[in-house]
Structure formats: C-alpha cells, structure tokens
Amino acid sequence: MAEKNKFEKIDEQIEGYTLERQPGFERDMEPKPIYEAEYYKGSGKLTGKTAIITGGDSGIGRAVALLYAKEGADLVLAYLDEHKDAEDTKAMVETHGVKCELYPFDVKKKEECTALVDYTLEKFGKLNILVNHAGVQYPTTDFVSIPEEQVRETFETNIYGIIFLTQAALPHLGKGDSIINTTSITAYNGSPELMDYSATNGAITSLTRSLAGNLAKDGIRVNAVAPGPIYTPLIPASFDQEKVEKHGGTTPMGRRGQPSELGPSYVFLASADASYMTGQVIHVNGGDFMTT
After folding, report:
1. Among residues 160, 188, 197, 266, which one is catalytic?
2. pTM for the whole thing?
3. Per-residue pLDDT tens for 74-99?
4. Which of 17, 185, 203, 240 could form a disulfide with 228 if both were Cys (CB 3.0 to 4.6 A apart)?
C-alpha cells in the first residue's frame, strides 16, 4: 500500500471540480513550523481587548493568537474544520491566562460571518480587533485553463469573506479599535503560477486602503500585513515536495520565514503603538523588496 501523504490532502468536490484540500493541517507537517516567538514578553498591550482571528487554528493565525494572548486579549479563533489544530492552539493560548473560544465556519458565507460576530458578542460582550487571515491558493501556470470553480473558490474565500465579516463586525467596533487584513507579497510582485490568488491579494490591499479612509473619521484603523514566503500549512497543501523544500530560498535572506516572525507585526497594528497608522501595509518577506 502506498504511503499516505503526510499532509492528508483530501479532495473536495466543488460542482464537479476537484480541489486539493486547503488550507491544510499543521499537525501533520514535517518539519513543524515555528509558531511561538519564545523571546517575546507581553506587556499588557491588548489587555481588556477581544479579538477574532480567522484562520486562527494554525500557521500565522496561531502565531498571532499566541502573541495576542501574551498581551492579554481574549480570543475567538475561527477556522474551517481543522479541529485538532484549533484545539492545540486553544490549549496553548489558555496557558497565558486569557479566554479562548473556537468557532468552525465557512468564511465564504455571509450568514456564517454574521453568526461568528454574534457568537463573539455573546461570549465576550464586545469586539475590538478583527484579523482577517483566512485564505486559499491553487497553483496554475496556464491562465486559460484556470477553472471557473477555482476562481470562484479563491475570490469567495480570500476577499468576499473579508468583506462579509468586516460588514458584520463594523457596527460593534469603535474608536481605537482595529481591523488587520492579511494580504501577500504577490499583490506587489505578482506570481506567474498564483494568478487568481495574486489578484485577490491586490483586492485585499486596495480594500484596506479604501476602508481605512472611509473609517478614519470614526477612529477605527485598518491596516494589513503582507507576508512573503512563510512556512505554513498552506505551503505543503499547495506545492510538491521539491518546491516546499526550496520555498523561500531565492529571497535575499536565503530562507523562508516562520509564522513566529509575523506575529509581532499583528500585535503592533492592533495596539496603541500604531495609533497614527491606517491604510498601511507591513511587508515581512525576507528582503523581497516591493515595487511601488
């Protein structure tokens, strides 16, 4: 019997089109990502705050959750169906003395985004930080052959979900609160094999800037983080073993980044340290410089 893929890629049928299982499971990755910045010492920057983190079960979402917990925030970790990863993250978060709830949902569905916000308010009575991090990517080198189902899946997950969830959250956010979107280096450099994915990140970046201008009068800040090649479950779910092993090797730093190296940027943008920042994107990419 052939050895099972360690990442447990599961085929998902979407209107007759087969997509490999995304965004993936961290529990089966070898080697494991580095998700905790052990050097990081919290200083109460987010004490009394409540945050929703989509894609919060693993990868960058897990790293952000751990640092938010160290800074004193209560959390709702929203994710698709990676239950074991989510339970592991919840256990880690709660060691820091904060409260953490798990919420499996489909970010593509507006009614489920609304239900997530309602659940957060029911559990914690408030919402202060929204981290829109859920996303998928399906490599395709032939633009003409990109299936309609893939385009819809990618756009509905990556950008529709941000719009729906932010619409649900906004009535409950106020002065000093923060929205943080995850975009990508591909929004700036492009990607010949992630064309539809890159387009969604361009949309996320534009939405971040536009919404920031719209909400500035209300004192709600909207910013984003643009990761470069970061070792998360999405990588082995997207590429073959050879590409995974070479992932990030062409950056000036000569390596891929780890989720732990992203977390501090999300803390900064959520905290009062970034009180005079809105409509901005922090680039964490190992020196892959952006073209403006």
Report:
1. 197
2. 0.87
3. 999 999 988 999 999 999 999 999 99
4. 185
